[in-house]
């Protein structure tokens, strides 16, 4: 009887240990085992937990301590700055899990490109996701040709996406369908630009080490939809 109790106790300890280990960030060993597909699956499963309001325990204290050893993240998410899109939470990720690059309108720009090249080539990230979102103010501004200080140059980076969308009579931000189409076109354009403007990224994707995907976040239900 004693033996059974000891074995059950040991099994429980192993299981609990495993559960806690599951909420820690990747280390060099676990990062090596990741593939672009497994990371994408992991992020989308996290988004499902987010939409259900079932975020996992981020285990902050243990993660902070472990972070001193280095970083071996899984993905780079290029997102808009919108306060309604809390990127780590959206994918139920925490300290040491993902790089997040944010700029209004999720356009690449040289600074983002350099950051993504570092994240993939140097820090070993397997997945790059360009994440646009519903009702994006930057995209709306580009649709309306807003001029404001340095924002003018930033919005100019979205203008090609605005111009690429056809078939709408009302081409202002008042037309939600038009804005939705531009948001999608803008994500697709950023994904294409990443491949075109970065030999590093294009090379990594070609050899299967990295995958670049586009996605849209819904403000209505918090879900992320991948673009094919
Ligand atoms: Zn936005």
TrEMBL record:
PANTHER family: CARBONIC ANHYDRASE, CARBONIC ANHYDRASE 2. Belongs to the beta-class carbonic anhydrase family. SUPFAM superfamilies: beta-carbonic anhydrase, cab (SSF53056). This is Carbonic anhydrase. It comes from the Bacteria.
């Amino acid at each position: 009887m004693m033996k059974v109790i000891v074995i059950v106790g040991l099994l429980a300890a192993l299981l609990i240990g495993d559960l806690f280990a599951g909420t820690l960030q990747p280390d060099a060993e676990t990062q090596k085992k990741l593939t672009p597909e497994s990371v994408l699956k992991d992020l989308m499963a996290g988004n499902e937990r987010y939409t259900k309001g079932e975020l996992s325990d981020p285990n902050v204290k243990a993660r902070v301590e472990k972070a001193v050893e280095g970083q071996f993240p899984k993905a780079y998410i290029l997102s808009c700055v919108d306060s309604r899109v809390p990127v780590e939470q959206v994918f139920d990720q925490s300290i040491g899990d993902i790089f997040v690059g944010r700029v209004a309108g999720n356009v690449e720009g040289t600074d983002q490109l350099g950051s993504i090249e570092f994240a993939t080539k140097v820090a070993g990230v397997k997945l790059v996701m360009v994440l646009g979102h519903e009702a994006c103010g930057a995209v709306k501004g580009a649709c309306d040709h807003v001029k404001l200080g340095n924002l003018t140059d930033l919005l100019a980076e979205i203008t090609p996406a605005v111009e690429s969308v056809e078939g709408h009579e009302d081409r202002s931000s008042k037309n939600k369908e038009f804005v939705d189409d531009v948001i999608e076109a803008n994500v697709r354009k950023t994904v294409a630009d990443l491949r075109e403007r970065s030999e590093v990224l294009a090379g990594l994707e070609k050899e299967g080490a990295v995958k670049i995907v586009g996605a849209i976040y819904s403000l209505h239900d918090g879900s992320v939809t991948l673009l094919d």
